[in-house]
UniProtKB/TrEMBL annotation:
Species, as recorded: Lactuca saligna
Lineage of the organism: Eukaryota, Viridiplantae, Streptophyta, Embryophyta, Tracheophyta
Name used for this protein in its record: Uncharacterized protein
Amino acid sequence: MIEYLRFLPLDQALTIAESIPLIHLSKEFSTAYYVLVDKVINFEVNSRKTSITKARFCKMLGFGMPDGLVDPNSISLVDLIHMFNQLAYNELEAQEKEAMDAKVTLKTHESLFPPWTMERILNEVVNNPILHWFKPMVSFELVNSVDSQFDFPVTPRSFLFRCFEQIEKAPLSDYHVNHKFFSFYINYEKPQLQIWSLQMMVAIKVYAPFSVDGLINVKFKGYKGSIRTEFDFTLANLPCMNPND
């Protein structure tokens, strides 16, 4: 109910604080009682007794201050359900919409970042090296912040970068080295839609290197954005990451 009351005058009163733990909200409701003579609502919050006048409470909600009281027992269950529906809330519909939005988001990301296959790498990296991606694909935001960094998907040519000591001196035209290199990426990289991010990497942990198919790989744990969302990646994910990262 609180989530959908944002469309009503209650929005200001309910969003003064960024978040209110449900345990405190429940405590306030369960301990609240109204003193008719003084027109004051007494309740407890965070184990402290406090109160608010009816006039101030109604003003915060953007309502007038009626003199009469409403008997809760006079409100039928049908009326309560109707009230929730008027607030644009339907639990089943909300769940279905959330699931649909998630599918649309996933499909959008999949279309923006199709999987890298050997055929695609050879076509866009070797056969047609003029293809570059230095253009926005998800966001046109101009402010480079930790939660919305510049949107510049990396150029496919990064798949040729010799980031391993074993092949650092091999020419870019060496077919066998490239095939081994590309196979490593295809076999061990995560989908680009999981790696590329608008959230800026703010911290990183590096773990011990390990050998994979004759190449030395390294595992990392990154922390993205202001809330420091954790994500794991390896050297195999480098070509698919945001260049800012």
